[in-house]
């Protein structure tokens, strides 16, 4: 099968690989579309330490089940499924036992610990695959499977009060989905991002304002989410919070955070919180919410053969919405 691999940091290489064989509890999925996530950039560039080399990136996979191991249940051959970032948790540690499997120390991830969706076929443990909502194309579904899910968890971690004022820093694949959920739930959303095209998209989707990443929003924020992997924006976002506000940092990787001034950035019970992966329940809840609120995915499609260009465009902020590889 055709595939793209990361063997050395900084390079995505085309390859011919054997079609994988599903384990007893796994599905073999023929890939139809795969979202291009900023985490894929971190895997390619070595920002995340290699867990497998070479590895096929990609963890926003939409495809068709074409075979299954004897213990794989819930997704019959011929069904459309989603293959997400979270691939395995132990089920026995204190985090798994208390509904916090995203913190499982034995967790494994698609496109990092195991080959992902930058290929014509991939595998997924059946218990970690998602049934997908109707009314979306393959390309429209792909960004929901990581960008949407992790954005949803970041929104919940931000503890936005009902009808509150939310600031969103960075406005790519994840942010444009999260903003729609927040607005559907009654929030006022202010977007702060360096991309003029992203600011236009934010206003089209209903944001109350859109300005530069270092600008001050037009009103104090009850909560904020940092999607851009830029540590320099942490003090900026904290300073924009009202008393009692929370900043949620959504990325798996962040450049260094400058020194914080206690009085300006943290006093008055402002809170800084990280976001680590997601639970399967996060995914199921978000996919149901996306369908209920008719969340619109803005997609920039790329042929599978141009995966390297898609990653370069993402790195240079040339992607409007979410980039998706199409088979």
Automatic annotation (TrEMBL):
Q: Which GO terms describe its cellular component?
A: cytoplasm
Coiled-coil segments on the chain, per record: none
What is the reaction catalyzed?
a secondary alcohol + NAD(+) = a ketone + NADH + H(+); a primary alcohol + NAD(+) = an aldehyde + NADH + H(+)
A single GO molecular function term of this UniProt record: alcohol dehydrogenase (NAD+) activity
Q: This chain belongs to which protein, by name? A: Probable alcohol dehydrogenase AdhA
Main EC class of this protein? oxidoreductase
Q: Which family does it belong to?
A: Belongs to the zinc-containing alcohol dehydrogenase family.
Residues forming the Alcohol dehydrogenase-like C-terminal domain are 176-288
Query: From which organism does this entry originate?
Result: Streptomyces xiamenensis
The record, for Gene3D superfamilies, names:
Medium-chain alcohol dehydrogenases, catalytic domain, NAD(P)-binding Rossmann-like Domain
- At the top level of its lineage, which domain of life is listed? Bacteria
The record's EC number reads 1.1.1.1
């Amino acid at each position: 099968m055709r595939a793209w691999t990361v063997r050395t940091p900084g390079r995505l290489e085309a390859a011919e690989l054997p079609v994988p064989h599903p384990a007893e509890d796994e599905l073999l999925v023929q890939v139809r579309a795969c979202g291009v996530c900023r985490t894929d950039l971190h895997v390619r560039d070595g920002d995340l330490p290699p867990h497998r080399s070479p590895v096929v990136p990609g963890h926003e996979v939409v495809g068709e089940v074409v075979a299954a191991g004897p213990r794989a249940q819930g997704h019959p051959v011929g069904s459309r499924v989603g293959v997400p970032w979270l691939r395995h948790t132990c089920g026995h540690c204190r985090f798994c036992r208390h509904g916090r499997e995203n913190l499982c120390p034995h967790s494994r991830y698609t496109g990092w610990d195991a080959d992902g969706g930058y290929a014509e076929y991939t595998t997924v443990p059946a218990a970690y695959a998602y049934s997908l909502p109707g009314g979306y194309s393959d390309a429209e579904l792909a960004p929901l499977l990581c960008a949407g899910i992790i954005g949803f968890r970041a929104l919940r971690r931000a503890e936005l009060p009902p009808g509150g004022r939310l600031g969103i820093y960075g406005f790519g694949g994840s942010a444009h989905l999260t903003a729609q959920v927040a607005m559907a739930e009654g929030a006022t959303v202010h977007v702060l991002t360096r991309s003029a095209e992203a600011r236009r998209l934010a206003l089209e989707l209903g944001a109350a304002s859109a300005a530069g990443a270092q600008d001050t929003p037009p009103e104090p924020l009850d909560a904020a989410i940092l999607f851009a992997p830029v540590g320099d924006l942490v003090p900026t976002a904290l300073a924009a919070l009202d008393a009692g506000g929370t900043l949620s940092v959504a990325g798996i990787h962040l450049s260094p955070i400058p020194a914080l001034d206690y009085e300006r950035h943290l006093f008055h019970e402002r809170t800084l919180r990280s976001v680590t992966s997601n639970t399967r329940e996060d995914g199921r809840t978000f996919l149901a919410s996306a369908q209920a609120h008719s969340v619109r995915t803005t997609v920039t499609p790329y042929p599978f053969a141009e995966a390297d260009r898609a990653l370069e465009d993402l790195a240079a902020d040339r992607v409007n919405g979410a980039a998706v590889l199409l088979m």
